[in-house]
TrEMBL record:
<protein>
    <recommendedName>
        <fullName>Surface antigen domain-containing protein</fullName>
    </recommendedName>
</protein>
Length: 302
């Protein structure tokens, strides 16, 4: 029994020693904690100061998130339209590429033409200088003519006094000519045109580009622009195979006029081919009613 009590006391003493050791250790830990606590509190304050702006930024971000989401939804709505536009552009790309290729192919001829113009520029400038010289000479001639104008005006005034008598005589001659025209045959020749040309095209233009006076008409409107076009078309057709005796007729339903073009003769002279062409014009109505003829004698360089 005594041993048991002694053992109990021993165990109790050991327990007290262990308790004392624990209290000492806790005291040391508490002392260390008390030493480090100000630094920990300062660090907590610093962390809190850093966290506050972050929290505020997060709050700001949370406030703009709805607008960002709405804008994102709008972008998502526009995506199909953008994709469709991209498809349209892709379809047009081959056309654009082809057009670029054509433009690229057209550049060399343009550059060549530009080089040709550059080469001809000296002659053009020379011609301009010659033209300027001619203009100066013409101006000098005009100045000389201006000095003669007073004499011409004086002579004109004297002539104007004699005009009434001349007009009376002219009216008498015109009346006699009209009477003779009415009595003459309808196939009578009203005019003759001659000269030398460089090509059959000039011949056609020269024959058809005539005035009413050439046909001996009293009124310009008797021979209309439509008549002139019909006349030119008929002559152009005839001159494709020009042979003696060939003829072509034309008519204009608008004016009622008609006509005929006849090759009377074809001959070779020196380095040219000479033609004698009869242009017959039939006026349907008006003071010029009847047949009017013009003979054209022209030579075209061979």
């Amino acid at each position: 029994m005594d041993k048991l009590i002694a053992l109990s006391r021993l165990l109790f003493a050991l327990a007290l020693i262990a308790l004392a050791a624990s209290i000492y250790s806790f005291t040391q830990e508490a002392r260390q904690l008390r030493t480090e606590l100000p630094a920990l509190l300062a660090q907590v304050d610093t962390t809190a100061q850093r966290i506050t702006p972050v929290i505020e930024e997060i709050n700001n971000l949370q406030s703009i998130v709805p607008s960002i989401l709405a804008q994102s939804a709008e972008y998502q709505r526009l995506v199909p339209e953008v994709l469709q536009r991209i498809d349209d552009i892709n379809q047009q790309l081959p056309i654009v590429v082809g057009e670029v290729a054509r433009v690229r192919d057209a550049i060399p001829p343009i550059l060549a033409q530009s080089e040709a113009w550059h080469g001809s520029l000296p002659s053009v400038l020379k011609q301009v200088d010659y033209t300027n010289q001619t203009v100066r000479q013409t101006n000098q001639q005009i100045n000389k003519v201006n000095k003669q104008i007073p004499d011409v005006l004086a002579e004109s005034a004297a002539l104007r006094k004699e005009v009434p008598e001349i007009i009376v005589q002219a009216e008498g001659l015109v009346a006699q000519a009209e009477q003779a025209g009415r009595e003459a045959s309808k196939g009578a020749v009203s005019g003759v045109i001659g000269g030398i040309l460089n090509s059959p095209f000039q011949l056609v233009d020269k024959i058809t580009d005539v005035s009413s006076d050439t046909f001996g008409l009293k009124q310009d409107k008797s021979y209309t622009d439509g008549d002139r076009d019909k006349h030119k078309a008929a002559l152009t057709k005839l001159m494709k195979t020009p042979k003696k005796g060939h003829s072509t007729r034309w008519s204009n339903s608008r004016s009622g006029n008609s006509g005929e073009v006849i090759i009377q003769s074809v001959s070779n002279e020196s380095d040219a081919i000479c033609y004698s062409i009869l242009s017959r014009l039939n006026i349907a109505r008006g003071p010029d009613k009847g047949t009017h003829n013009v003979i054209t004698d022209k030579c075209v360089e061979d």
